[in-house]
Design goal:
By secondary structure, this protein is mainly α. It has helices at residues 11-17, 22-28, 57-89, and strands spanning 2-4, 43-45.
């Protein structure tokens, strides 16, 4: 995955945007010898599309996915609870 440098960008800001380190970006882009000198329009490799990085690895990604699944399961449970409560509180025909 690549990023094109925009006016006002710094290697540090780009690293923060992609959840990685300046060192990692420099390792991916050996032509960058000085992290303080990047040019507008320069194409920088920022890693792969799955967001693996030296700070978090893929454990963070798995944790986020599990968290989202848990939230979704909770929402479904709440919806079922409300539905059951509505059915229970309706007047029963006698």
């Amino acid at each position: 995955m690549y990023y094109t440098v925009q006016p006002g960008d710094s290697l540090h800001n780009i690293a923060m945007q992609y959840n990685t380190t300046v060192r990692h970006l420099m390792d991916l882009n050996p032509r960058i010898s000085n992290p303080n000198r990047i040019r507008v329009g320069e194409r920088i490799e920022v890693g792969n599309q799955w967001g693996l990085n030296p700070w978090r690895g893929n454990e963070w990604q798995r944790g986020q996915e599990e968290y989202q699944r848990g939230r979704e399961e909770y929402r479904r449970g709440r919806a079922e609870y409300r539905k059951g409560r509505e059915e229970y509180s309706r007047p029963h025909g006698r």
